[in-house]
């Protein structure tokens, strides 16, 4: 039997959960602003968390995201994870 792929609402919730699990949102202010700075980690974490909160609210209201929305959010998370890795806030093998 062929397994069905999740609809885009389920896929977006799964993506949000994956991002929340892999990105270190719980860092203190001191940890966010470490020795190395290749982009403001604190601002990027706040921005990404607001994006996730916004999508969760939209999903709760019944909004159906498109594939482009999924791709955009995943891309933002990947780029922010890259900056966090450069700043030493995430291990190199962690993928968002």
Gist?
The chain has 96 residues and is mainly α. The chain has helices spanning 8-22, 29-32, 41-60, 67-86.
Overview of this protein structure:
The chain is an all-alpha fold. The protein contains four helices and no strands. It starts with 7 loop residues before the first helix and ends in a 10-residue tail after the last helix. The mean pLDDT is 86.
Tags for this model:
96 residues; mainly alpha; single chain
Write the layout of secondary structure elements.
Elements: H1 8-22, H2 29-32, H3 41-60, H4 67-86
Computed Rg: 15 Å
Strand coverage percent: under 5%
Low-confidence region ranges: none
Helix/strand-derived category reads mainly alpha
Helix content: 55-70%
* H/I helix tally: 4
How many angstroms does the end-to-end distance come to? 31 Å
Quantity of strands, as a count: 0
Report the principal-axis shape: elongated
């Amino acid at each position: 039997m062929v397994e069905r792929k999740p609809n885009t609402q389920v896929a977006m919730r799964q993506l949000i959960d994956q991002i929340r699990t892999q990105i270190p949102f719980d860092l203190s202010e001191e940890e966010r602003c470490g020795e190395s700075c290749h982009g403001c980690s604190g601002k990027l974490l706040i921005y990404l968390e607001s994006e996730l909160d916004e999508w969760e609210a939209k999903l709760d209201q019944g909004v159906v995201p498109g594939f482009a929305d999924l791709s955009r959010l995943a891309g933002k998370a990947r780029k922010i994870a890259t900056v966090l890795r450069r700043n030493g806030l995430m291990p190199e093998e962690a993928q968002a």
